[in-house]
Predict the 3D structure of the following.
Amino acid sequence: MITHSVFFKLKYPAASPKTGNFFAAAKELSSIPGVQNFKEVRQTGKKNNYDYGLIMEFNSQELYDQYNNHPLHTQFIEQYWIPGVTEFMEIDYE
């Protein structure tokens, strides 16, 4: 099992329509074949500078690779991630 997690800050305030649109589009990633246990999380502590996270699991490296190359994922990166995220940390682990 591969757990893919990414923690990030957005350019927009939490109540911004752009933030809502970002997370609506992110939720669509859960429909990509192979994605399991998709979660959106929000930072509650002050131990790092990231405000949000996306976490999901894959049964194999092959499914994870397919997710990374899926058109819905690449579209999300181009339309929402690149213009909206200021900083991030990605962690993938077994």
Residues 2-93 form a domain with the Alpha-Beta Plaits fold (CATH 3.30.70.100). The chain is about 35% helix and 35% strand. The mean pLDDT is 96. Residues 71-84 form the longest helix (14 residues).
